[in-house]
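Problem: given the chain below (558 residues), write out its structure.
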Amino acid sequence: MNLYIKKLGFLFLSLALIFTACETQESIEITSPDPAFKLQEPGISNVFLNFALPDNPAFTISWNDEVTGSSSYTVEMATDSDFTTPIVIGTSNSNNFTISVTDLNQYLSAASIKSYTETAIYVRLVTGSFMSNVILFQVSKFPTTVPSITSPNNTFSAVLEDAKANETALTITWNDPEIGENSIIAIDYEIEMALAGTDFAASTVIGSTNSNTFSITHDALNDLVIGSGGKPDIASNFDFRVNAIVNSASGELTRTSAKITIALTAYIVPIPDNLFMVGDHNGWNKGDASQQFYNNGAGVFVKVQAFNAGNAFKMIPTSGSWEGDYGEDKVNPGKLVQDNEQNITVTETGNYVVIVDFNTLSFKVAKIDNLYMVGDHNNWNNNDATQKFNTTGNGVFVRMQTFAAGNSFKMLPTSGSWSNDWGENKTSPNVLEQDNEQNIPVTTAGTYMVTIDFNTLSYSLREVPQNLFLVGSPNSWNNGTAPAFTKVSEGLFTISQALTASDEFKFLPVQGSWDNDWGASKKYNGMIVRDDENNVASPGAGTYTITVDFTKGTYSVN
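Solution.
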C-alpha cells in the first residue's frame, strides 16, 4: 500500500514540474539591440601633439553603423558639444578614421585655439541626414605662426651715450598670436642681433624674457654694438629678431620672427691700461702681478698660460682688486662682459694663448702645445710632421727653413689639420692672426730662423748666417779680430772660449761688421734675438763651450 502511495506522489510531483516548466518557457522573450550608428569611445582622450613626429597619428576613431547603409562618412570637429561652428577634419570610406599630428594641429589653428593650452574638442560623424554620437578629446597643440615685432620699426635710430649709461636705449615689443594666458608651458623669448646684411651668421643674443617686451640700457647695448662689429661714432645698421623657444617632452621648438633693421651709433669703450689674469692656475690670487697681459697699445691684450683641464679664470684691470673684473657673456660664448659674467673655462690640459680684444669686446683661448709650418716649400702638405717648430713651452716657437723668393707659409697647431691655422693679420704686418688671416710672404730667397711669439702675437724672419764670430770683452770688443765659431751643421755653431766672471759678448755674422749682430733676448732666458738684444753674460771664470743654435733660436754657455 505504501509503495503505491509513493509512486502516486512521484507522479503528481513530475506533473507539477512539467506544468511549471511549460509556464516558464512560455514567459521568455528573446530580443536584439536596436540598430545603431555610434562612435566608439577611444581608449585615450588626452592628446598632446608632438611636433617632432608630424606624420604620426594624433588619434584614431572607429564606429559601428547598422542604420545608414552608407559607405562614406564626414568627420567633424567643434569646440562645443552643440557644434555651433563645425569644422570638417576629414572623410572616410570605412568604419575608422585617423588624422595626423600635423593635420590636426592645422585644424586647431584654424579654429583659433591657443597653443600649449588644454582645450576640449568634440568629434562626430555625419553621413547624409544621419549624425553619430559625440566624443570628447582634450588636446594641446603646438604653435606654427612666428612672433611679429611690433616696435620699433625700420625707421628707428639711436645714438648711444656714456652719460646715459643706465638709461633705457632700446625697447623691443612683439606679438605671439598663438600663445594664450593659460599656456601650460613657459615660452622663452630670445632677442638676437647681428650686423645688417650678414644673415645672422655671427649673431649675438642680447637678452631673453618670458614676456613680450625687452629693454636694454645705453651701456649694455653699446658693448653689444661694438662686439657685433659696430664702430664708435659711426652709425651702423643692425638686424634684430625674436626667437620663441619652447622646451617640452617633444624637444625644443624654435620660431623666429622676421627681422627689423635699425641704426645705432656707439661711443668709444674705455680700454684699461693694464689687464691681469686670475684663476685656478694661480689659486685665484688677485694680487699676483706676474699674471699681467701684454698690451699691444691698440686695445689687444695677450697672455700665454698653462692650464689644467677644468681650470677657470677671468681678467681684472687692477692687480689686487676685483673691481671692474671681466668674464664671459653667459649667452654669447667668446664675448667679453663686466656685468653678470661667468668665468672662462678650459676643457683640456695644455698651453694656451689668451687674446682679449677690447675693439670687439671678445676673447679667444687657443691651444699652442705644438706648431707646424706648411707652405710652398713643402707643397702645402699639412700632414708633414717634419715641419714641427721647436719650443721650450714659453709661448715662443722657432724653426729654421729655406725658402725660395715669393714663397709663403702659415702655421698649424695640429699636423694634418687645417683647423685653427695661424697666419698674418691682413692690415698689420708681422702680427699673428687666427681668423681672416693671410699667408706669411717671403720676399727674398734664403734660409731663415722663423720665430713665432704668441706672448706678443708677433712673428719674425731673420736670415741664418753662414758664419758666426764672437765679439766682446774677451777681445776688447774689436769686431775686426772676433774669433770664428765652428759650423757644426746648417744653423748650428760652437766655440771654446776662456771667460772671466765679468765678461760679456755677442755674435756677428760678418767679422769686422756690426750689422745684424745677435745677442741674448731680454725676455726669454737662453734665446737669441737680432734686435733689441742684450749682451750675453759670462756665468763665471773658466773655459766654456758656447753654442748658438739657429734651428731652436737658443744659445748656451757650458
